[in-house]
C-alpha cells in the first residue's frame, strides 16, 4: 500500500488534468499551472505572502529569527480602529500617544523623546521613515486603512535586514495587492471630535494586469481642549488630509512582473499657536503637507528556486509651516549684533512672518536576490543605495544630501527538521558620519512537532544621527517685517546665537548609537479539538551604548552620545480562535535603567538626569491589550477591545472599545454598517495634560459597500 | 512489473543460447501454451460468463494502473479484457468498465444496451444516466462529498464555522445539499454567485470577507487552470485557506482535499461487479467507504497553520460523520 500511494497520487493528477482540461476547453498551454511548483511557496511578495519579512526571506514563524507581530487589515477593521497609528496598541511593548498639537507617535520600548527615531517604517518595502529629521509622520502616511492587507512588526533590532533605522524594530505595512481588490469599494466613518474618514477605490484585474485607484480623506478636530494657566482653552490641533494612491501590477510572463505604485497626499496638520507656536507666534503655525511618491518594482525569477527583485522609489515630502510673530522691540534690540543701530521701542512690537518650511526627497534603489538551494538552505542577499536630500532655509540654510550604500544577506540553514539557524547582517556606509557599520544577527530556532519553536537570537544594530542632529544650520529669516523693523527683512536670526552657551553642544559631531540585543522566545500553536491557540512569549535583554539624548529647542541644544541604557522585559502575545470567536491578548513588561555617560562637566546634574529621563520618556512598565471578536447570526458581529499602558509621564492610558457591525451579502454587492464606542476608562489626559477629551464616550458610525 | 520483465528476459536468454532445435521447441511450446490457454479462457467464458471489458481513458499509465488493480481485485476466474473503440459496437454482453467521463460517453454512444460501470466520474455526471437506466448504469464516484470536504476544512481549522462558496448560476445546485447538511455540524455556508469571469475576483474578495475558509467544489467554470492561481493567492493573501476541489489542486497549492484512494474505488468496483454477476443489475452509483486526505504542508507552514497528520484529519472527519450519521450529499 505504501508503495502504491505516490503512484496513485500521480495518476490522480494526470486524471484530473485529462478530465478538467477538455471540460473547460482550455489549451494545453495551461497545464504547467498544475505542476506542483505553481506557487513559488518560498517566493517573494508576489507569491504567498502570509509569512514574515523579518529577514527578507519568506519564513514561517517557526523559522524566523525573532518575534514578529502580525496585525491583519481585517483585525484593524473588525476592532473599529479609526486611524493607523492606533493599530500599534495591539503590538506588545508599543506605546502610542500624541505630542504637541496632536501629532501621533508610536514607539517600541520607549527611548523616544517625541519623534519616533528608532523604528524603521516601510510601506510595501518603501521607506516611509523621514530620514533628515528622524521622524515618522503618521498623519501623513500615504496608506489608507482599507488598503492594508497586514502590518508586520518585527520586535527587536532588525538592522541586519533593513539597515540603520531598524534599531529597535521594523514596521512593514503591506497593502492589498491590486490583484485582490477588483471592483468598487466605498466607505465612510463619522464620529466624535470631528472624525471623518471616507475611502473610495476602483480597480480591475485580469491575467496580465491589475490596478487600483483609491482616494482617502482623513479629518479630525483633534482633542477637545487644552489647558493654559489652569484654564481650558480651545485647541487648534486637527487635520484634514487627502490621500490618492495608485497601485498596479503588470505581468510580463509567468516569471516576470512589474509593480508600479504612485501617490499624492496633501492636507493640513493644524498646529496650535499656544501649544506649538514659537518665538512669540500670534497665528497658528499650521503645517501644509504636499507629498508624492513613485515606486517601481521589477520581480523576476530564473526558476522556482531563484528569484530577485529590483525596486526604485522617489519620494518627495514638502511641508510649509509659516506663522506670524510679535516680539517687544526691546527683545529684538537685545539680539542685535554690536554696531547695529537699535530700533525705536515706542513704535510697537516687532511683527514678521517666520517659517519652518522643509522639503525632503528620497531616492532609493535596491536589488535583492533569493536562492533556495534546498529546503534546508536558503539565502537572500542584496545591495541598496539611498540618497536623502533636504532643503530648508530654516533648518539647514539651504540644501544638503546624505548618501547611504549597503549590502545585506541572510542565510537560513536547517540541518534537521527540529533546528534552524539564521545568520545575517547588513553592512552600511553613510555620509552622515562618513563611516561604515555592520549590524549582525544570529539565531537558532529549535522546532518541536512542527508547531512549537524555541528561539535564541543575538543581534546588534546601529543608528546614526540624523542630518539635523549632525549638521544643523538653524536660523529664522523674518519676512513681511512691519515698520519700523524693515531692516531685518530677510536677515537670518541664528538659533546658535540665542542658545544657552553654557550647555550648548550645537554643531558638535555626534557618533552612532549601538544596541546589543539578546532574545529568548517561544512560539507555539496548539491544535485543540475545536480551537486553535497560539502563544508567543519573548524575553529580551538589551544594552544600549552611546545613545544620543538631550534637548533641542530654540533656547537649549545639548544633545550628545551621553546615555547608556540597559533594559529587559517580557512580552506575551496570544490568541485563541474557536467557532465564531476570536480572542487575542498581549502584555508587555519593561524594566529600563539608564545612566549618564557623557562628560560630567558638560552638563549640570539636573540636565544629566533629564538626558537619562528622556530616554525613558515613552517607556511604559506595563502595557497590554485584549480583543474579542464575535460573530453572531444574521451577519452581525461584535467586538470589544481593551487597551492599557501604565504608565508614561505619570499618566495611564485605559480605553475600552465596543463595536457592533452588520454585514449583508447580496448577489451583486455586500454592505456593512457599524457603530463603535470608545470608552476612556481613565478620564485623565494621556501623556500630556493638553490631550483633553471631554466626553469619556466617543462614538463612531461606519458604512461601507463593495461591488 | 519489474519481476515480470525479469522473467521475460530470462526466457529470452534461455532461448538465445540454444541451437535451432531448442529454439523451434521453444516456439512450439509457446504456441501450444497459448492455444491451450486461449481455449481455457474460451471455456471459462462460456461456462461462467465472467468477462469484464475495460474501456480506458486513453491515459496509458492510468489505464494500466487500474487494470492491474482490477485484476488483483476480481475473482481469478473473471477476465478483464481491454477493448478499443472499434470493438465497442460489436460487444453483445458483459459488463464494461469505463474510465472517466469521456470513455463512458464513448461506450454509451456505441452501445446503449451495455451494462456500464463508470469509474472516475463525478456524481453530477453519472447520476442522470443511472436514474434513467437503473441497474444498467452505475458508477464508483470519484468526487468527494462536499460535507466531507467541509469537515476536512474544519478538522484543519477547528475554529472555522463559516464557509464561503463560489458558484455560477449553473453550478449553484452543487452546493445546495451541503448548505442543508452543515447546520447539523454547527457550520454554515454562503454561496457567492459569480456572474462572469470578469467579476470572479471581486466576488471572491467579498466571499473571503464572509467565510473562515473557501470550499472549492469540482466546478470547472470557476476552478480551472486559468483561474486557480489567482484564487489561491488572493485567498492566501487574506490569510484564508482553500479546501478542495481535488487532489490535483492540492499539488497546485490548495491547502487540503479529501480524495477517494484508488484501491478503495477498485474494491467497490469489484463489489459492484459481483452484484451484477449475481443479480444481473448494478447497485446505484456510490462513493467509496474510505477517503484519505491530501495536504500541502508547505502552504500550511507558509500560512502558519498547524497541520494535524493526514490520518488524524481523516479520522476527525470520519468521527464527525459517524456522530451525525453519514448524511452525505448522496
From TrEMBL, chain A:
GO cellular component: a single term: cell outer membrane
Record localization: Cell outer membrane
Predominant cellular place of this UniProt entry's protein: membrane
Keyword DNA repair appears in the UniProt entry: no
Pfam families according to UniProt: Plug, TonB_dep_Rec_b-barrel
Membrane topology category: Multi-pass membrane protein
Residues annotated as signal peptide: 1-27
Matching InterPro entries: Beta-barrel_TonB, Beta-barrel_TonB_sf, Plug_dom, Plug_dom_sf, TonB-dep_rcpt-like
Keyword terms of this UniProt record: Cell outer membrane, Membrane, Receptor, Signal, TonB box, Transmembrane, Transmembrane beta strand, Transport
A single MF term (Gene Ontology): siderophore uptake transmembrane transporter activity
Domain TonB-dependent receptor plug: residue ranges: 61-169
UniProt GO BP: siderophore transmembrane transport
Ranges of residues in domain TonB-dependent receptor-like beta-barrel: 283-631
Family assignment from sequence similarity: Belongs to the TonB-dependent receptor family.
Name this polypeptide is given: TonB-dependent receptor, plug
UniProtKB/TrEMBL annotation, chain B:
Recorded superkingdom: Bacteria
PANTHER family: ABC TRANSPORTER, SUBSTRATE-BINDING LIPOPROTEIN, ABC TRANSPORTER, SUBSTRATE-BINDING LIPOPROTEIN-RELATED
Protein name, UniProt field: ABC transporter substrate-binding protein
Lineage: Bacteria, Pseudomonadati, Pseudomonadota, Gammaproteobacteria, Pseudomonadales
